[in-house]
Design goal:
The chain is mostly beta strands and about 525 residues long. It has two domains: about 1-310, Tachylectin-2, Chain A, CATH 2.115.10; about 325-535, Jelly Rolls. It has one helix and 43 strands. A hairpin with a 6-residue loop joins strand 40 (about 480-485) and strand 41. The two termini are about 25 Å apart. Bound molecules: (Z)-L-Arabinonhydroximo-1,4-lactone. (Z)-L-Arabinonhydroximo-1,4-lactone (6LW) binds near residues 45 and 218. Keywords: Glycosidase, Hydrolase. Belongs to the glycosyl hydrolase 43 family. It holds the Pfam family Glyco_hydro_43.
Length: about 525
């Protein structure tokens, strides 16, 4: 059973543009949203993690519940050996005639794919490959005759080699049932000249078709630009050339707003008939250089039509009140949908052991998650690991780890992972407890003997906290957070290390993902119980 709570779920006062922000906290980038009647469905990128592409549901655009995943079976993506950065990359979710579609690029994997279903909670189809066309950030729209257009960004990331050259925003028509292109890709717009024109979405509104894109790169220069035309295939004219507003219509670049990197958005009608843009953004902290520990999250802002052009408000920070609590006693029939794994499914690397009362000693064994190590560490391409996203800047995570004391015992622990080369962890086994920081091939370890007093009912408590930096020091205050690695509970808790958090951030790590708090095993059978995450803003 899991227990997910937000101690105060009252949405902020319904004054214009006081949306809760982040809308969905933690590593949930590239959001795409569709309105179907009074229901909203939202999808995100998941890259090398599985299950892939979470689907969230809402009726008010404010409260969101995860209802499933598009990718939940082997074969839907070619994930097993996908390079870091590859995998489920920028989905678009749309609906027509009772069918939901997600178009997405499995970057460095299968390629451009069409998934469909009649129930967005799943199951989704196996994914139909669009052969011969290479690019990212696929959008889906239909013209008045029902012809389907895929508009996409011409960056070819098929091979895993660094892409050279960007072909701008391209478009072709497609048979959605077979994935067969009905026309050759043609260039439709390349933005205003900023780098990486990407994330196109096409909307029909009033007498025009609007092509909304992101440009400036997913870093601090990110923004949203819009052009319009009479037909879905253009030609598209931008505002400045037609007496409308200048592009980008939304960007936080060169401002001191707490939410930066805003771009890659999708437009949606609000329940009251207004408009909003849901987009990715980051929350960097530090100073002139700043670091975004949580990666790229989902944010929202109000938008409106003004004289035939789209305008958007700045994206304001407005975190949900109270503590975020995610606790798992591992007594459910399957792992909760929040748990993810790297290049394999959680069910491929873990099992659940039911709680039991042992007849002999009358002892009660709690529900446990069992991981059996394969020798690989957190550096491995396919680590034995399951994790949940860190959702708040300040957090406290603890878990009880069993099967790690005594001869023949296992080795495993609790970590925070950005990718193979960027992770901090605390692990227990072989008679010692080790805290470790790994950053781009550089590693440091702090090891102490395992104190028998730390073994309670056969298990050791490990802790990982993210706390504010020491603001009194010019040097130590310039980071995102400090990661504290500890062993033991209550008065017996011992801190092994305090590590600068900036090296596990979007600005420094390789992956496009975010921080994942993970349970892992290196060798032997390691059991985990009483997982608890508490987060604060
Ligand atoms: C995505 C692109 C982007 O394809 O980053 O910020 C890429 N936007 O649109 C990966 O998420």
């Amino acid at each position: 059973m899991t227990d997910t709570t937000q101690t105060d779920t009252t949405p902020p006062a319904p004054v214009e543009n006081t949306w809760p922000n982040p809308l969905i906290a933690g590593f949930y980038p590239d959001p795409s949203v569709v309105k179907v009647g009074t229901d909203y469905y939202l999808a995100n990128s998941t890259f090398e993690y599985l299950p892939g592409i979470p689907i969230f549901h809402s009726t008010d655009l404010v409260s969101w519940t995860q209802i499933g995943h598009v990718v939940e079976r082997p074969g839907q993506l070619a994930s097993a050996h996908v390079p870091t950065l590859g995998g489920a990359w920028a989905p678009t979710i749309r609906h027509r005639d009772g069918i939901f579609y997600v178009v997405v690029t499995d970057a460095m994997g299968r390629g451009m794919l069409i998934f469909s279903t009649t129930d967005p909670a799943g199951p989704w189809s196996d994914g139909t490959l669009i052969e011969g066309i290479h690019g990212i950030d696929t959008d889906l729209a239909w013209d008045e005759d029902g012809l389907a257009y895929i508009t996409y960004s011409g960056l070819d990331v098929t091979s895993g080699e660094l892409p050279t050259g960007h072909k701008g925003i391209l478009q072709f028509t497609v048979d959605l049932a077979t994935g067969v292109p009905l026309s050759q890709p043609v260039s439709v717009w390349s933005g205003t000249g900023l780098k990486f024109p990407e994330a196109p979405h096409l909307y029909q509104h009033g007498g025009y078709w609007y092509l909304m894109i992101a440009e400036g790169g997913t870093e601090r220069g990110h923004g949203i630009s819009v052009a319009r035309g009479a037909r879905p295939y253009g030609p598209f004219t931008e505002g400045a050339a037609a007496g409308g507003p200048a592009n980008p219509i939304l960007s936080a670049r060169s401002t001191d707003r707490p939410i930066q990197n805003t771009g890659h958005g999708d437009l949606v009608e609000t329940p009251d008939g207004g408009w909003a843009i849901v987009m990715l953004g980051m929350r960097p902290t530090g100073m002139t250089q700043a670091f975004s520990a949580l990666g790229r999250e989902t944010f929202i802002t109000s938008a409106r039509w003004e004289d035939g052009w789209l305008a958007a408000d700045p994206v304001l920070l407005n975190p949900r009140a109270g503590e975020t609590v995610f606790a798992d006693d591992f007594t459910g029939p399957a792992l909760a949908p929040e748990w993810i794994a790297v290049r394999r499914y959680p069910a491929e690397v873990s099992t659940l052991a039911v709680a039991s009362a042992e007849a002999a000693g009358g002892r009660t064994t709690p529900g446990r998650l069992v991981l059996v190590g394969e020798g690989g560490t957190l550096d491995a391409e396919q680590p034995i690991l399951v994790g949940v996203r860190q959702r708040n800047p300040w957090s406290s995570t603890s878990v009880r780890v069993g099967g790690v004391a005594g001869s023949g015992a296992g080795l495993g622990g609790l970590g925070v992972r950005y990718d193979e080369e960027h992770h901090y962890e605390i692990e227990v086994g072989n008679g010692v407890v080790t805290a470790r920081a790994c950053v781009a091939g550089i590693r440091q370890e702090w090891t102490v003997p395992l104190d028998p007093a730390q073994i309670v009912d056969g298990a050791v408590t490990l802790g990982l906290d993210t706390v504010p930096p020491d603001a009194s020091s010019m040097i130590s205050g310039l980071t995102s957070d400090i990661v504290v690695l500890s062993v033991g509970a209550g008065d017996d808790r011992v801190e092994l290390a305090r590590v600068d958090g900036r090296y596990l951030s979007q600005e420094t790590a390789a992956s496009f993902t975010g921080r994942v708090l993970c349970l892992y095993a290196v060798t032997g059978k390691v059991t985990f119980s009483a997982f608890r995450y508490t987060g604060r803003e």
